[in-house]
Amino acid sequence: MMKFLIIPLLALIPVWFSGCTQSAVGEEQHAPKVSENGATFKEGKGVSLTETMAQSIGLKTAEVAGEKIAPVLVVRLQTLQQGNEAVGWLSPEQAATVKPYMEVELRPAGGVDAPALKGKIFRVEKTTVVSGGDYELTVQSATPLDSNTALSATIHLEAKEDLTSIPRSALLSTAEGHFVYAKNGEFYVRTPVKVGAISSTQVEVTDGLYTGDEIVTQPVMSLWLAELQILRGGKACTCGH
Length: 241
Prior knowledge:
- Helix content is 22%, strand content 45%.
- By secondary structure, the protein is of the alpha+beta class.
- It is elongated, with a radius of gyration of 28 Å.
């Protein structure tokens, strides 16, 4: 009789252990993940920082506002011969924002800190030539230019009113797209956004945020790295800028 009782009891042991294991796995999957530096990540909530860590990285937040933005268009130009003209290419959308006689700042390509030369837009015309865009842009410089020189032209476009905008420092750009870290209670959640006009200090947000939302203005890269460290062991699969 004892022999028949022992077999059913032994058969139940794997079930008990299996139930305990599944319960432990379930709890582990839903538990917040914590990094060595004290940052916590919770699925659906975002990244949470200790007060000490927030102070050490200089965390700052601000509300999304509606502001007037003066967009900046940067175009790559090339001089064909010595003189005062340089040529570049524009998309139809870019061509619609510029017109002759608008002022242009010219610098050597890649020379962000180089002194700017003054110039103006001479002509914008549609072209059938295979090129980098559908419209040819001709810029005239106030000073002579060397032949076969690559230049960067900065054009300050007309300001737009009442746009939902954020500081440029709040925007995180990766191979996956554009993001901001929006405040979600004690957490900061990485939120995808679509951007429009960009000035030297502000970025227009066309989708993903509303005026009054609170976002991290700096340092977004530190938050992104903290999130990567928790989720991927510090191994980024994309490149942030």
